[in-house]
Design brief:
single chain, alpha/beta, D-Maltodextrin-Binding Protein, domain 2, 6-stranded mixed sheet, 16% strand, globular, Bact_solute-bd_prot1, Sugar ABC transporter substrate-binding protein, signal, SBP
Length: 432
């Protein structure tokens, strides 16, 4: 997924560890000693065309109304944000304002590269975002990023096909349980159409996030040590997916080895009644659909709860910046309800603040699933994985091949759990 950053254990990431504590007080901004015009640098990895346009307009409007505090917009490749920041922090050239995501900022915060925002946050900005979302950008009790847009994993439905099969769609007040979703998928598997296409080539984030529906956390703190558990709570979601593939045969088997966006042509072509993926896929559906294709995004699936992992896009201020107060003033402006609604529509993600959610519903009239997107925010909670420095390594080296093997039918559920726990003991436990 292009909007998800690659933050694995790379040579550059290892270099960041060696650079811990090298935070500089030198400026990433320009301004005259006498208090004249200030220029703030603002790096953003926005890549969807509507979002880039929204970013540029907000910055231009700010610059027009704030002649003494100008903002220089710097686009950054979404797939190289982490490594670029490592280089910038080590060379004391980091931008004042940094667009990143919660999963990536913990390491930089621990290494002293990001400013603590607690004393800078305006009261309205702080109170307007749910605490569970703030928790995802909090490290050792301090806030290091302002959450903005959030992804969830949801079901997209071909409404014409489901209506044809006599399936009643869920609502935000009456969402589908996993059992109802499984039953609907089985019912919709008919006449050469599969109930679900599900790109599970990279299944870990999806499974870990959706397992929170059953209280499955995978990672638990025991006397200051993090352990990996694979209890009934963690087993429920992967087992249901496995059953849909091999017992119900309602998930198209060819899609299991595909990336999330790879299933879109089949969905748009009527091969799958539903697909599951990040809510950002809506933007691609709108772009690629032809004719009178009828679709919507459904509310989050429900286990015991509808909870999923909060890993928002964030905006941080470099500790190197000489103008943190002005940077926060810009962020308060940048993330007001009107602007955040525009950014959310560009990326088709959920805005973090209640005011922006209300503005989004007014702007979109709740059509095409926007009501479900807005509704999802209250179910997004801080993930146990968010501050585990070795989680990316466990995810890529251990969990990904293990889940792939289970969903391919080559290992059992018990063997999956053994691989996950043994793998964490081998590569993950050190340092967490």
């Amino acid at each position: 997924m292009k909007h998800r950053l690659t933050a694995g254990i790379t040579a550059a990431a290892l270099a960041a560890t060696a650079l811990a504590g090298c935070s500089s007080s030198s400026s990433g901004s320009s301004g005259s000693p006498g208090g004249g015009k200030i220029t703030l640098t603002f790096s953003s990895y926005a890549w969807q065309e509507p979002t880039v346009a929204a970013n540029k307009k907000i910055v231009a409007d700010w610059n027009a109304s704030h002649p003494d505090v100008q903002v220089q917009y710097i686009p950054v490749d979404a797939n190289s944000v982490h490594d670029k920041l490592v280089t910038q922090f080590s060379s004391h050239t980091a931008p004042d304002i940094i667009h990143d995501e919660a999963a990536d900022i913990a390491g930089f915060a621990q290494q002293g590269y990001l400013a603590k925002l607690d004393g800078l946050l305006p009261a309205d900005l702080k109170s307007g975002i749910p605490q569970g979302v703030w928790d995802s950008a909090t490290v050792n009790g301090s806030v290091y990023g302002v959450p903005s847009l959030l992804q969830s994993y949801t079901v997209f439905a071909n409404t014409a096909l489901l209506k044809q099969d006599g399936i009643t769609l869920p609502t935000t007040s009456n969402p589908w349980t996993w059992q109802q979703f499984q039953a609907a998928a089985k019912q919709a598997t008919t006449n050469g159409v599969f109930g679900v296409g599900w790109g599970l080539k990279s299944p870990v984030s999806t499974v870990v996030s959706m397992s929170l529906n059953y209280g499955g956390k995978f990672f638990y703190s025991d006397n200051g040590k993090t352990t990996m558990r694979f209890t009934a709570a963690e087993q429920q979601v992967p087992k249901t997916i496995h059953d849909m593939i091999f017992q119900d045969k309602s998930i198209a088997p060819t899609t299991v080895t595909e990336a999330g966006s790879d299933v879109l042509p089949g969905f748009l072509g009527g091969k799958y009644a539903m697909i599951v993926g990040g809510n950002y896929l809506s933007q691609q559906i709108l772009k690629d659909k032809t004719g009178d294709f009828q679709w919507t995004m459904l509310p989050l699936l429900k286990g015991d709860t509808q909870n999923q992992m909060a890993d928002p896009q964030t905006y941080s201020i470099a500790r190197q910046s000489q103008h943190p107060q002005q940077a926060m003033q810009f962020l308060d402006y940048f993330l007001n309800a009107e602007h955040l609604s525009a950014l959310a529509q560009g990326d088709w993600l959920a805005p973090s603040s209640t005011a922006a959610q209300q503005r989004l519903l007014a702007d979109t009239k709740g059509q095409d699933g926007w009501e479900a997107v807005s509704d999802s925010v209250k179910y997004l909670v801080n993930s146990p994985t968010s501050q585990l420095s070795n989680y990316p390594r466990w995810k890529s080296q251990i969990a990904t091949p293990a889940f792939q093997g289970y969903l391919a039918g080559s290992i059992t559920l018990e063997q999956l759990g053994q691989k996950l726990t043994d793998g964490w003991n081998q590569v993950g436990a050190a340092g967490n």
